[in-house]
Amino acid sequence: MDNTPQIIIRMGSHAEKEYILKLKNKAFDGIIIGANIVEATAGATASLVGKKLNMPYYIDPMTYVFGCDLDGIRTERKKKGVKKGETEISYKRSYESLANKFGTFFSGILESRTPVAPDNFPFSSIKSICQNVIDYQLNRIREEFIKDDDYKEYASSINNPACVFSPYFYIPYDYNDSLSLFLKLSETSANINPRVPVHSVLCADPGLLNNKSFIDEVVNKIPKTKIDGVWLWFSNFDEYEADEDSLRNFKDLVKRLSQNNLQIYNRHGGYFSLILNKIGMSGISHSIGYGEKKDVNQIKGPPNAPVVYYYLPDIYKRYGVDAIERCLPDLGIKTPEEFHESICGCIICKGVIKNNPSAFSDFGEMHYAKPTSKRPSQTPAAAKRCRYHFLMNRIMEKDFVSKNNLDSIKERLRQSKYKWNGFDKIIQFKHIDNWLVSLS
Amino acid sequence: MLDLTRESSLLNPVTGYIKRKGFCVHDTEMPFYHRSVDIYGYSKRNNKTIAIELKLHKWKQAFKQALIYQLCADESYIAMPQKYTSRVNLDLLSEHGIGLISVSEVGRCRKLIGARQSLVLRIDYKNNNIEFLQRSKNG
Question: What is the number of domains present in chain B?
């Protein structure tokens, strides 16, 4: 069995496909696309997955959204058939469309404005609910091809997704009924026995990582559902901020589940999760340039464009360009060669820093996006540099993890800590200590 | 008496203080990458720039920012209410050349430690900031 960790890139929008297309042959193992994105851009997604990309794909059914505060998927939009300028608050079209495709249970949830909960779940219809969600993942891309006269002949050659996910909902700290629902959905989906592996998403309160009863129950009962894999998603669980106990419990969970022949993924993971490949993690998923943690609750209103920080390879974490730049003189970096040796020698950094390390500031380049802008923001070019640099490093990290044992990986962590020890007033890296302790 | 529960209440006393020392000061926060320097001043007479980070009590956070501002200012300071300055590790600040200004409850400022000339100053950042400052002063 190949023990190389898999990296599945989560595509947050079609604006990100440029990165995926450029790097697809480098080392990524697949892409995962939320079903809401599929619904919002069905043609473009089908074209990307069915024609342009020749790599495994996954469609995340995003069913958890229908069990959360439904205001998170409502937005202000233009009213149909009225004067220009009139708006209304209603469900986002992508989720409305998704609910309709998943069937009457999900569309009814939106109509009644009552999120899915164990006490309103129609257990008598569980099989058809699972079947609909699985059929969606198996057929949605193909259907898009069939709709198009020019492409329908290719529909049969579209690959199946790498796996299908059972419907899943958030499991709160008071977990009993929600865990039962999760297990029932997993078991029912596995029994449908579609032509691809069935995985589920354990989407839960992060506090449950430290709840021994929950963990024991999960480890004992999930294998009995006969699903093939589990994607872990402890809401907002952050490898960089988590304490030693949470990290150790996370590690132990991965180890125990994987010993039951289950494929284990972290739905939003970083380098720590990649290291866990050594004790049973099959792979990780994250977005382009961010997304190594995610809150289960949807952001209300338009999302702010975040600053894309520079990923410091030694420390496996992003920092402001200014903070890293402040360390360069004290690290004795005066030439591009010294920069590439000491900070990063990826193809992007070699391209940006050719003559002088001061060009490092290009990763944090700012501008006033509009004449009316009050504050400067990162230029799109700078954000792109940071993203590509991050992705190149993630590929190298995958390679390093696959070729080294856990002791060597830990030794490199120790070396990083030693090298940056004098800079801890500017570059905080408590996570390295926590990782080392939890991996011991 | 100043309301020293709000960081912004430090702004006027500290701005007044460095103006009296001959610095021309930017009216609003000075952008530096994704951050904003609370007070950035320029003394034409000495061709010196100064960056000041205002903090009520989280001096370690201010220290980090002040270290970073050594990239764009000749001198980098932290300004804090007098009643919290006893918590600050003065040796650490001195070691790194960061200055400290205390602000009393009546708004009187006192330099507890003088900042040293930054050894990591980038002249292009300094010049850009001076230009930005002069442009905004000229409307």
Answer: 1
